[in-house]
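Suppose a colleague, Dr. K., hands you the sequence of a protein chain of 250 amino acids and asks what its three-dimensional shape might be. Before reaching for any lab equipment, you can write down a predicted structure in token form. Begin with the sequence itself:
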Amino acid sequence: AVQIGPGPQKAAFVQDRLLLGDFTLSAGIRFEAIGYERTNRLANDGAGASGEASLTQWVPGAGLTRAPSPALNVFGGAHRGFAPPRTEDVISQTGGVVDLAAELSWNYELGLRALPVRGLRVDATLFRDDYENQVVPASLAGGVGATLTNGGETLHEGLELGVRLDTGSLTGSTHNVFVRGAFTWLPVARFEGDRFGNVPGSGTVSVTGNRLPYAPETLLTFAVGYTHPRGLLAQVEAVHVGEQFTDDLN
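The predicted structure, expressed as tokens, is then:
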């Protein structure tokens, strides 16, 4: 009885790549125009209810890489982050339009990809995500509902590491035992600007500088596996998620 459909969608982009020896410079810009429509045919005793909303956004970005050898790639970049809300989060079943803006941010990264020896791959990236508006859960486990809210200005800074070792490539064997690990360290994930609590009764409590809900400081993944030359893959994986808060009051 509830029909969710996109309105008019328009997108266009221009991108250019400049090669200068070991360096590659890429830059581009994208335009997005998004329309939302939602109809609930059972609302108002069968009379129905519908709602519409729309938004537009320019999304620029640029990146620079250097590959001094086939075994090393150093990269950096900056781009506009844009994530539109879902239709069901913007338009209610009664046709009302919820004041939920798109996620907007400026994202920066600096990292490298390396193959120190045959069979070993290493990736490392420093990142900074500076949000003008981040959409965050009000609090699910905190007990105040699963609604999404405009988190306003937030800041994320951290480091990602990834390592993979394939014994097949190292020894030349068609039977491959591999070890894979990934680690994310997020020391900074906080509210910026003027922000007050979303938990009922906390509307006058400042949460500026508090850690974001559902933003653990550490994530760790470790896996050991085997691949057979005929296509069989078997692996055991362990995932660790660090402690996290469930509401903006911490």
